[in-house]
Amino acid sequence: MAAGLAITSDQGGQYNGRMTLLVVLSCMMAATGGIIFGYDLGISGGVTSMEPFLKKFFPKVYTKMKEDTKISNYCKFDSQLLTSFTSSLYIAGLISSFFASPVTRAFGRKPSILIGGVAFLAGSALGGAAINVYMLILGRVLLGVGIGFANQSVPLYISEMALPRHRGGMNIGFQCGVGIGVLLANLVNFGTEKIKGGWGWRISLALAALPASILTIAALLLPETPNSLIQNSNNHEKAKRVLQRVRGTDDVQAELDDLIRASSISKTINHPFQKIIQRKYRPQLVMAIAIPFFQQVTGINVITFYAPILFRTIGQSESASLLSAVVSTGLVGTTATFISMFVVDKLGRKALFMIGGIQMLVTQITIGGIMAALLGDHGGVSKGYAYLVLALICVYVAGFAWSWGPLGWLVPSEIFPLEIRSAGQSITVAVGFFFTFLIAQTFLAMLCHFKSGIFFFFGGWVVLMTAFVYFFLPETKNVPIEKMEKVWKEHWFWRRIVIYQVDDKLAI
Length: 508
Hints:
mainly alpha
């Protein structure tokens, strides 16, 4: 256990506590929700580049890739049925996230995590046993339900369990889980592609059951958050005992009082989705929509979903493309996310957003320029330039992995007051899923039509999102989660909106 620390509230009181083993274990177990998300991101791109998988479920794509010598490099994999395999998960996740919100609010974070784990288990079993494309897509839909519930509840769980001073680093554990999941998926794909008989893709899909089992067991063993206990019952003594356990001290009255106060406000709200559109919550609503939208238009899904396909587009073999995906999206991304975990509560959220934004923009423009100059509709690029593109993609992935990757989950999970927290997180998850679905469904067609211009397209969005963060996102590091409203009242733009709302109430 770490040394003790105290967190000062803006009212002059202190939140006493230290980093207890219970908090660390709880957040680590909950972060396996990130692993199942990351595993699916990595596995889907890998299996869709495996020839036996394409031959069985998408024979037209396989024939076009192997036999059509006249088709453009950028159009070999353009198939709506193939993209439906990838994107069906995200439309299911979008819909399920709205069901997850009332479950998380009414019954707590743990039941929502449990539902996510069980649904993902069922989906992985169905995918591994699939005998036709309909069974395959049904499995993806169940995986989407699992991810919808997990992505709704896990970031909230971690933010509510963690100390304010360490909330950023602990919450990035979720994104570290995503990175580890992507890395494991790429390693599994690289190994199963070599299995004789062409059934390695079944192992790739079925192994998703392993992290799902961990999450399901964790949901049964983890303690519920004190915030959720107070919100869902009047047993303040039980909530106090849990708070004392997770903080490692008996002196938790200041924090407990703030939780009870926040819960009292929360219980007056019967329709949080109607409440969140009010003017006083305008900053949080804007961020709940803008941050997940911007996270998806960084272009990261170009790399994560279709990295093996992209590397095959520039002329690499099936095995080499999978190995390149291991290095670029798996190992580099996971390492950079771990770095973010240790610096986010020191440098702050905005500094990492700025660094990552500039890094992604430069590499996207450079990659787009190389592909525009050297990769035509036929043939490939030289081995030297292929390795250069791989290196640039690694730099790009690192930029995303210590900025928009983890912070796209962290910031929304910490900015909502308790009365709209589940609704706000639900909107964040739903917006993320919608644009993930949209990009997954359209990317192969965009690659076919935009060609190398796809990198300039996403680069333009990176410019816009970096400017948005610089001007409109206040710094949230070290601010207690139930005291977060003060950052909006002190912000140069948002204060005019939220303080105006307060003044209106006083006038009435």
